[in-house]
Amino acid sequence: MSENVGIVLVSHSARLAEGLRELLGELASDGVRVVVAGGTEDGGLGTSYDLIAGAIARADAGAGVVVLPDLGSSVLTAVTVLEDEPRPGVQLVDAPFVEGAVAAAVTASTGAGLAEVVAAAEDARGFRKL
C-alpha cells in the first residue's frame, strides 16, 4: 500500500497546532502523518523557520505534503522555507486553518493524491456552518 499525503500545521501557537492535530487524529486514519510546527523553539508565540523545515521533512512519506499555515508570518515563514529548501511534492495551501486541515486529513486518509488533498483543503473555504 502506498503512503498517504502528509500534513504540516504551521501556527503561531504550539498549543493551537497540537489541539488541531489531536482533532485530526480522531477524524483521519493513523496512516496520515500530521506534524506540527507551532510557536518558537523556546516555546513562545511566533513562527520558526527550523521547526517548519523539520516538520516538512518528518511529514514527507513520499506521497507529498500539504503545508497549512494559520496567518501572517506563518505564511511568510513557510514561503521562505519552501523557496530556500524546495522539495518535490510539497505544497503550501491557501485554506482556512481548521476546516482546511480537516478536509485535507480526511481526504488524505482515503489514499487520495496530493492534488486531490490540496483541492479538498482549498474547497473548505466555501464550507458554511449555518
TrEMBL record:
Transmembrane regions: none
Keyword match rRNA-binding: no
GO MF annotations, alphabetized: phosphoenolpyruvate-glycerone phosphotransferase activity
Reaction it catalyzes: dihydroxyacetone + phosphoenolpyruvate = dihydroxyacetone phosphate + pyruvate
Subunit structure: Homodimer. The dihydroxyacetone kinase complex is composed of a homodimer of DhaM, a homodimer of DhaK and the subunit DhaL.
InterPro entries associated with the record: DhaM, DhaM_N, PTS_EIIA_man-typ, PTS_EIIA_man-typ_sf
EC number annotated for this UniProt entry: 2.7.1.121
Keyword Transferase in annotation: yes
PROSITE patterns (alphabetical): PTS_EIIA_TYPE_4 (PS51096)
Keyword entries, A-Z: Pyruvate, Transferase
Function: Component of the dihydroxyacetone kinase complex, which is responsible for the phosphoenolpyruvate (PEP)-dependent phosphorylation of dihydroxyacetone. DhaM serves as the phosphoryl donor. Is phosphorylated by phosphoenolpyruvate in an EI- and HPr-dependent reaction, and a phosphorelay system on histidine residues finally leads to phosphoryl transfer to DhaL and dihydroxyacetone.
Protein name in the entry: phosphoenolpyruvate--glycerone phosphotransferase
Domain PTS EIIA type-4: start-end pairs: 4-130
GO CC term, one of those recorded: membrane
Listed GO biological process terms: glycerol catabolic process; phosphoenolpyruvate-dependent sugar phosphotransferase system
